[in-house]
Amino acid sequence: MKTLKIMFLWLLGAFILIQFIWIDVPNPPKAKPSDEIKAPAKIKKLLVTSCYDCHSNHTKWPWYSYVAPVSFEVRTHVKNGRNWLNFSIWNQYDEKKKQKLLKSIVKAIDWKMPPPDYMMIHKDARLTPSQRKEIKEWAKSQIKDEQEY
Ligand code: HEC
Domain locations in the chain? Predict the structure, then answer.
């Protein structure tokens, strides 16, 4: 019993200590409403519910995003996600970058995005195969010249 108690206290101590480690997510980049991506309402809705937590300035931070060690995972996701692709500043990207991102959306939407661990918690963000297809077709339709980039 005594060892268990000591182990528990160590764990508790470690848990409290890691709360002081904070992953800094820089403030979202400045954006005008017109910078936001434009897409047919149906597609936009899917992007908002399934992608915006990590790929926009409109992150909804759940309570556990403030509790380490989960906060490490969540905050790193948002930080990297926005770096890669931020739908809130879409129109600040030049055409070349947009085309590149559209192509990576076509690829990522098959299975990589939204990340599986995120969907485990966010059931509403799950996409059906046909919703994935809709996003894919939309992204494809925005790609201008297959050869050029
Ligand atoms: C939980 C956060 C999260 C959500 C939700 C999310 N992403 Fe991502 N996304 C990331 C992170 C983090 C990266 C950075 C690259 C990586 O980790 O693989 C990324 C990278 C990407 C990339 C670049 C991938 C590459 O390798 O070129 C695309 C495209 C992308 N996401 C599209 C989407 C789309 C579309 C959705 C919604 C259907 C979405 N993501 C939802 C976190 C997220």
Answer: 25-142
- Show the tokens assigned to 110: 């098959």
Write the pLDDT tens digit of every residue in 70-87: 999 999 999 999 999 999
Given a cut of 70, the residues of the chain with pLDDT beneath it are 146-149
What is the C-alpha separation between 99 and 95, in angstroms, rounded? 6
Chain CA centroid to CA 1, Å: 44
The Å distance, Cα 122 to ligand 1 centre, comes to 15
Pocket of ligand 1 (CB under 6 A): 50-51, 53-55, 77, 80-81, 84-85, 101, 104-105, 108-109, 113-115, 118
Answer whether 49's CB lies under 8 Å from 118's CB: no
Q: How many CB atoms lie within 10 A of CB 142?
A: 16
